[in-house]
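agent> fetching stored inputs for the adenosine-5'-diphosphate docking request
agent> found them:
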Amino acid sequence: MFRRILIANRGEIALRILRACHEMDIEVVCVYSKADADAPYLRLADRAICIGEAPARDSYLNISRLISAAEIADVDAIHPGYGFLAERADFSAICRDCKIAFIGPSPEAMAKLGDKVECKRTAKAAKVPVFPGSEGAIEDEEEAVKVADDIGYPVIIKASAGGGGRGMRVCRNEASLRSNIKAAQQEALAAFGNGAVFIEKFLEHARHVEIQTLGDSHGNAIHLFERDCSVQRRHQKLIEESPAPGVDRKKIAAVGEGAARLIKAANYCGAATVEFLMDEKQNFYMLEVNTRVQVEHPVTEMVTGTDIVKLSILVAAGEHLPLKQKDVELRGHAIECRINAEDPDRNFMPSAGLIDTWQVPGGLGVRVDSHVVQGYRVPPNYDSMVGKLICHAEDRPKCVARTARALREFVVGPIKTTIPLQLRLMEQSEFRTGAVDIHYLERLLK
Ligand code: ADP
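agent> prediction call returned; pasting C-alpha cells
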C-alpha cells in the first residue's frame, strides 16, 4: 500500500480524501494556494505545501508546481479529487512518467472515455444504450441534415471535447440545424481546441440517472447502482439521491451491468460515473462518462455501505477490488444537498466572505462533509460549494423527512446559502412524489 499521498485539490474533497488516507494509515501531503492558507483541514495533514497564488492556474492547475511538491515531499501517489486536473489525461501521463501513481485511470482509459465521440463508440460496442444520432463526428451540413432526418427533430449538437454544459445547441428544424452547425464547429474549436461535433436526439422530458462504477487493474469492474441527479439548475446538480425513485429495479440492474462492461472495455482502474438521461418510458441513453470521483459519491456510499475513496486508493495501488457484484446491495435511501455559498433569491449570486455562524445538524443518519468551521472565510476564487449534507433512512419518505429536519437545524450566516431553497424543495409535492425531471427546478424558480 502507499506510504504517502499528495492531494492535488482543496476544500471538502481534500478533507474527504485525507480522512480516507488516515484511516488506511497513509500519510497525507496537502497543497494549498495563498487564498487557502488558513484552511483548517491543512492542520490535519502530515505536511502542507504552498504551491502558489490564488488563481487556480497558478496553483491547483499548475502541473509543474504540483509535481515539484510531490517530489519534495517524496509521495508515492497523487489523488486529484474532482475538478481541477482530475480529468486531464496529460496529468495522469505526467504522473506516470514521474513514477508517481495517479489515483484514477490511465491516460489511455481517460482519453477513451473522456472524448464524447470515442466514448459513444466504445459504449455502443459494449451494448450500452446511447442516443440515436451520428456515428462519429459530423463532417458537413449535408451529413448533419441527413442524420437529423433519420432520427427526427429536435436534435442537439454537441462538442466532442465539450464539458460543463458548454458547446451544446438544440435545433428544432432543418433551418436551425443548417444555421447552427458551422458555428458549433467553430465554437468548439475555439473553446476546446477540437472542432469535432456530433448530433443526437434531444429529449424534452428526461431525468438524469447515473451509475457509479469501480474497476481495478486486473480486469474486474462492478457497479454500485444509480443516483438520480435531476434537480439541477443550468446543468449544475443541487440535490442527488439513491435509489432513483420509481425506477424499475431490473432495468437499473441491466443498465448498471452495461456501465460496468463499458469501463471494463476501457481497462479502467478507479471510480467512474456513467451518466444517462432517462425518458418517461424509462429508456436510458448514455450522456457521458466522468472519469473521477464525483461530488455526489457519498449518496452511493450511504446506501451500499462502501467507501468509494478508499476503494479507489486500493485499486490504484494494484490491489484487486475486494467486492464482487453480488456483494453490492442497496439499503434504504440517501439524499445529498449541495450547500453552496450562493443567494438563491438573487439569481444564485456568489456569497463569499466570513462565516461567523456555522451550526451543523447531527443525529442518526446525518452526515456533513465540509471543510468549513465557524470563522472560516470563503475565498472568492473557487467553486462556491461549502459542504454537503447527506441523509440516510430506511425509505424515501423517511429520508425526505430527515433531510428537511437536518436542513432546519443547519444554520449558516451571514453568507447566503442554498439551504432555504433545498428546504423548500423537500416540501414540494412534486419532489415528495419523486418524479421531477431535469427542468423541474428551473420551472419552480420562475
Ligand atoms: P457536459 O459534459 O457539458 O456536462 P452532457 O452531455 O453531460 O454535457 O450534458 C449536460 C446536460 O445537457 C444534461 O444533463 C442535460 O440536461 C442536457 N442534455 C445533454 N444532452 C441532451 C439530450 N440529448 N437531450 C436532452 N438534454 C440533453
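agent> quick read of the result: The chain has three domains: 4-103, 129-201, 207-444.
agent> awaiting further instructions
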